[in-house]
Amino acid sequence: MRDVIASDSPYSSEEREVLRRVAGILIPSSDEYGIPGADDDLIFARILMLATEQAESIKSGIDALNALAIERHDDSFPQLNETQQTGLLHDEANSGFLRQVIRCTATSYYQDGRVLESIDLKSTPPFPGGHEIEQGDWSLLDPVKARAPFYRSIKAVRNRNV
């Protein structure tokens, strides 16, 4: 994961605060299981990296969410209590924004080693690690190897485009 500093982010500090609050509501920390919430610094940094790809639409969603917060509660989203924030997130008007944030949040959360270990998964790649790979029956590929190519050759495509 590359290091992201705040000045590299397309999000303002206020927008990052809204995203952090939403992530924390979506996946809160658990003392019972000893796992962080999605608003944890390491996890949130990964969320910001993923959310950068959809920055324009997520920023629009943040603006809409803040406008709805001001309309209904006379305050910005981060200033509301968690019950009010959750109520706004359940509003149908925020569904597109919320889908994008959920995707970034869940992806980032389940890449964190602490979370993976808490659900008894290794936080390292499965191979190599001393695992034996069972050899299959390579003769099963013989019919595929024997059939005529069904794709266009690059040479034929290039000659047609000239």
Descriptive account of the structure:
The chain is an all-alpha fold and 162 residues long. The protein is 53% helix and 0% strand. It is built from 8 helices and no strands. It has helices spanning 13-26, 41-51, 55-73, 82-89, 95-109, 113-118, 142-146, 154-161. The chain is flat. The mean pLDDT is 87.
What is the CA–CA distance across the termini? 43 Å
Radius of gyration: 23 Å
Give a quick account of the main beta sheet: strands, pairing sense, barrel closure.
none
Which series of helices and strands comes N to C? HHHHHHHH
What is the averaged pLDDT score?
87
How many DSSP E strands?
0
Shape: flat
**Which percent bin holds the helix content?**
40-55%
Determine the number of helices (DSSP H or I, runs of at least 4 residues): 8
Strand content: under 5%
Give unreliable regions as ranges: none
Question: Quick gist of this model?
Answer:
This protein has 162 residues and is mainly α. The chain contains eight helices and no strands.
Question: Can you give keywords for this protein?
Answer:
about 160 residues; single chain; mainly alpha
List the helices and strands and how they pair.
Blueprint: H1 13-26, H2 41-51, H3 55-73, H4 82-89, H5 95-109, H6 113-118, H7 142-146, H8 154-161
